[in-house]
Amino acid sequence: MSVATIEPPLEATLDPIRHDWSLQEVQGLFAQPFMDLILRAQRVHRAWHVPNAVQMSTLLSIKTGACPEDCAYCPQSVRYDTGVVAEALMPVAAVRECAARAKAAGATRFCMGAAYRAPRARELEVIVEMIRAVRALGLESCATLGMLSPQQARQLKDAGLDYYNHNLDTSAEFYGEIIHTRTYQQRLDTLAAVRAAGLKVCCGGIIGMGESPADRAQLLRTLANLPEHPESVPINRLVKVAGTPLADAPEVDAFDFVRTIAAARVLMPRARVRLSAGRESMSDELQAHHRQPRRGARPRALCTARAHPARP
Ligand code: SF4
């Protein structure tokens, strides 16, 4: 006997895409009854996306550790004793091999992360070759390399890079509690340079660093009020790493985390809102609120020795 798949009869919600959200409006979303917020997020999701489609990406750390920045959550900072072994920039051939394996395992996008404050010219030249190699395999490419100048962003675009990841992490107000080696404005400047170069943007934040509910609302408001919404919005749950200043941060309430994802979905309808870091420690039930694939369905991490513990 065959069983038909019945999609819930949700009407499409085609509210206009906005870039002028007030803090009160965003906080109002968070304050909705839980199931109302989930339903609203689902309506938006189904209006703009294929409901159960999953895009598979593989992330490779192409340069690990020894980062001069002091992001309080990050085991790759040279300032914290976390046991991360620093590794130099990988050779292009090794990255090509990892990308080929990622493609064979089903990935359509290959993300390369390097623990830099900002890449230097000669490092960027090598990374440009990596991007060309990834694109030659027919994969989409994504990179996260820290701060970029407008000229560097154009260089990456010219090499064929599709996406650049650069997270805002949290609200402007709370940022100084987490990072002291750069400013929020520098983050925004890099995002502007990336956009101006014609790259797609992957930008989100981390929940669970001790921020207030208002900080979470402000983060989403900042993202939603960018001149163009990021194509990809990773919402990370803090991965607490021994040796970092946030090793003992309090647990995030699971419902608060889901609310954050649902609010992001409503605010940025076209974006792919992603559960990123912290997913391994979430229950299947918690992940299901975001319609992610079951754990067993995730692509295997490739070249795991170089898997990036945190993203700049
Ligand atoms: S998050 Fe990025 S910039 Fe910050 S310490 Fe880690 S690798 Fe460096």
Describe the structure.
- This protein has 312 residues and is α/β, with parallel strands linked by helices.
- 36% of the residues lie in helices and 12% in strands.
- The protein is built from 10 helices and 8 strands.
- The strands form 2 sheets. The chain has a 5-stranded parallel sheet.
- Helix 3 links the parallel strand 1 and strand 2.
- Helix 1 packs across helix 8, helix 5 crosses helix 7 and helix 8 runs parallel beside helix 9.
- It is globular, with a radius of gyration of 19 Å.
- The N terminus and C terminus are likely disordered.
- The chain binds iron/sulfur cluster.
- Iron/sulfur cluster binds next to loops.
Major sheet summary line = 5 strands, parallel
**Strand percentage, roughly?**
5-15%
List low-pLDDT spans.
Answer: 1-12, 285-312
- Give the strand order of the largest sheet, numbering strands 1, 2, ... along the chain: 1-2-3-4-5
Gyration radius over CA: 19 Å
> Level of helix content?
25-40%
Q: How are helices and strands ordered from N to C? A: HHEHEHEHEHHEEHEHEH
The SS-based structural class is: alpha/beta
Shape verdict: globular
The helix count comes to 10
How far apart lie the N and C ends?
Answer: 51 Å
Instruction: Report the mean per-residue pLDDT as an integer.
Output: 85
Instruction: Name every ligand kind in the structure.
Output: iron/sulfur cluster
Indicate the multimeric state: single chain
Tally of extended strands? 8
